[in-house]
Model the fold of this input.
Amino acid sequence: MPLNIVESTHKKAKPESEQIPFGRTFTDHMFVMDYEADKGWHEPRIVPYEPLTLDPASMIFHYGQTVFEGLKAYRADDGRVLLFRPEKNFERLNLSSDRLSIPPIDEQEVMGYLEELVRLEKDWVPAFEGTSLYIRPFIIGTEPSLAVAPSKSYKFMIILSPVGPYFSGGIKPVTINVEDQFTRAVKGGTGMAKTAGNYSSGYQAQAKAAQEGNADVLWLDGVEKRYIEEVGSMNIFFKIDGEVVTPALSGSILKGITRTSILELLKKWEVPVTERRISIAELYEAYEEGKVEEAFGTGTAAVISPVGELNWLGNKMVINDHEIGELSQKLYDTITGIQRGRKEDIHDWTVEI
Ligand SMILES: *Cc1c(COP(=O)(O)O)cnc(C)c1O
Done:
């Protein structure tokens, strides 16, 4: 479909240092496309960033029919702008949409629109160490109706936000609370979809964890509260007695693109790695035997976030003396190196804008 571009006449000031608070500054333009049952997705356009006007009865406000994605554009040392495996984000967006009864987008067409948008906003991709341009595609149900049924109309949008380094002043391992009361997701639920309700339903557990000095929550399975699932917005990996273990995708775990990339790297490096069910009790037992060597969360935001301490029902597990592990560091350096064009992209993971 032809893409209509309306250029903004008031250009905003861009961040002048790496001190950029997450997700509060937005660029000059946004991408919008509409869906109507009889027209399908139509009218793709790039327009000046501005507030939306929506009917208060719009279905998004009432039953949460929405999905989103998160990826980044990186500034390479030589000035090029690179995306990291963006096709995987649109593939996952369609999986999330399917779960939420939202009509699919044409992944390749939307990829083209994203490239146009990032090209137009290229100067917004910051060059300071560790910074990037965060990309947030999302879809909302817009039909004005209180009927409990899928919306007949939708808006797909992409907004862009320059973001600072996840770790300022070096990577710091985090302390995480193992949640024993609240549930994030169950098999058959929406845990494998990036949809709004999965996150707001975790705020209480997050607040409880924060009160006790934890930076995040480690979720267990919703049925038995035994098996490890993932962190707030990160997948989780452990290195136990030389072997890397991550929970297998169970239907309630989000399939992270960083997770997939790490599995591919470890296999290539011939580091023993398994995706399987792992219980918190098994982890604790291995910990007591001194076998838990490293633990780290993975996601677009931090790439690798080492876990320095886990708190589970009053049991404290201190991992690698609150230091980043050797393998965690190697994975971090490799992935960020590819994203920044400093390491050869032998997997063909980056897309140059
Ligand atoms: C987005 C997200 C992740 C990480 O996915 P990436 O594609 O690696 O950024 C993990 N868990 C949850 C719940 C998420 O929302």
Notes: The two ends are 20 Å apart (CA to CA). Helices lie at 60-63, 86-99, 107-120, 197-200, 203-211, 257-268, 280-288, 326-339. Residues 70, 194, 230, 233-235, 254, 256-259, 298-300 surround pyridoxal-5'-phosphate (CB under 6 Å).
